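Rotation project, supervised by the postdoc (A.L.). Task for the rotation student: set up a whole-complex structure prediction and record inputs and outputs verbatim in this book. Inputs entered:
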Amino acid sequence: VRADGRRRWYRVNGPALKPVHDWVRTFERTWNTRLDRLDDLLAELQNQEKAT
Amino acid sequence: VNSNQTLGNRHGSAVITLPSDTEILITRVFDAPADLVFQALTTPDLVQRWWGFETSEWLVCDIDLRVGGQWRFVLRDHGMEVGFHGEYQEIAGPHRLVSTEIYEGAPDPYPNDPALNTTTLAETGGLTTMTLLVQVESQDLRDAILASGMESGLQVSYDRLEDLVRQP
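Outputs recorded:
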């Protein structure tokens, strides 16, 4: 961090951050698969309710 | 009746954030009342239809829905058995559910370290926003959960494979 008058400059280490990002992405995909299945189930249950 | 018209339009919309070094927050909106979502989270017959993966075979799905009651899920997926269990600590259906979760296959040094899972369901205009806050004791355990994709090592493997074949 470098202070320059009222501005503050941050240097972000892109390559170093990327693995952390990918890591969470994988976890996110896993949860998306699971919650998409819940989404489908909720739609199915509501359609059944309507049909009866 | 085209019952599938809106089906899947929110697929892939779950968002993961890391509020602190020891927390994971999962957020997802559903086109359903909170009451129905709560049922899907706490009724064994319904849990078995979504919590695992399509290829999962359920071996145990026990839910004793009372404060101090235990839950336990055991699934077999491509020959691999995975088990999870915990205890309900707070039940305020359909808006709040707090329970512990222990991954039975966790290697040392976290064999029996529980995560605290707080689920909230907020309903507005027929939509329910679900948040699941996972809280653990240490950043190491939080990172281990993220890294292992411990909810389904298999799915993670497929995702990795997908990434791999997508490389130019």
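Student's summary: The longest helix of chain B spans residues 153-166.
Supervisor addendum: Chain B has four helices and eight strands.
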